[in-house]
Fold this sequence. Notes:
Helices cover 40% and strands 22% of the residues. The protein is α+β, with helices and mostly antiparallel strands. Strands 1-2-3 form a 3-stranded antiparallel beta sheet.
Amino acid sequence: MKLPRDLSGADLVKALAVLGYEVSHQTGSHIRLTTQRSGEHHVTVPAHDPIKVGTLNAILRDVAEHAGLTREELLIELFS
C-alpha cells in the first residue's frame, strides 16, 4: 500500500487514535501524541496540510516499530 500524499496532521492524529494514541498537548503547529499500549510511546505530528512525505514516512516507521508491525501492516490498519 502506498503512502497517502494528501494527509493532513489532523487526519493523521485521527488515524493514530485507532492504535490508542491520544493528544497530550500541542505547541504551535506541532501535536504531541502519547499511547500507553505496549509501554509508553510519544510521537510528534506537525499540524500541516499536507504533511511532507518524508516526515509522514518517519512518523509511521516510528509508530510501526513501537507497535511491532511492519510498515505495510500499519498502513493497512490505519488507512483501509
